[in-house]
Amino acid sequence: MKQARKLVELSQRWLCPAIFAGYLVFYLVDTDRYYQTLREDHVIEWLTFVALLAVGLVAMVLGWRYRGAGDRRAWFLLLLGIVCLGGALEEISWGQRVLGVESPEFFLEHSDQQEVNVHNVLQQKLGFYTKDLVAAVLLCYGLVLPLLAKRPEFADLCRQWGIVVPPMVMVASWILASVAIVDLPTGEEEELGELLFAICLLLLVVGEGLAARAVNGEEES
User: Fold this and answer.
1) Alpha-carbon dihedral sign for residues 114, 99, 192, 34
2) 126 or 8: which carries more pLDDT confidence?
3) Contact 81/59 with Cβ under 8 angstroms?
4) What is the pLDDT of residue 217?
């Protein structure tokens, strides 16, 4: 258990920065293939789907266990699980391309991608990119919230509301994910940013699950 927790902590600190740096090197080595992997329906998008699916399942299981124990974090994890499962399906247009389903007329008219995809409909209706909103919300969650939670009174408030606060070791990862999702540094990094955010969330819920198991183990012993 201790080894698993240490591995997760190392991953929380270094995995996303390593991926971001590796992709910058990839850009310098093979620019054409770099751009190809960042297109729709390629490797990065499918890795994001898998990561979000994993986050959703882990968060739902953990939230259900917390609910049984009367832990206030249950609602937060269950909500996170639902959002990430929906996000995973949005990432692949709810399986439309896999199943070969034609887009209904509504999505042909109102979706930027002309696919069964809710967030692209919202983009057209609201007049701004949903990725910018996602970047702002998750940056606040991964950067601002941990900084505020260093104050004991704010940390107590988070515990009362059942909010899971990301560890400080992940701050750099949330920042890099935000940088990438707004298409920096080359203007084509949105898919990479989505993957980095999905990895951040996955490492967060896995770390939360291991911490909960450690506490339960101590209580049982």
Assistant:
1) negative
2) 8
3) yes
4) 59
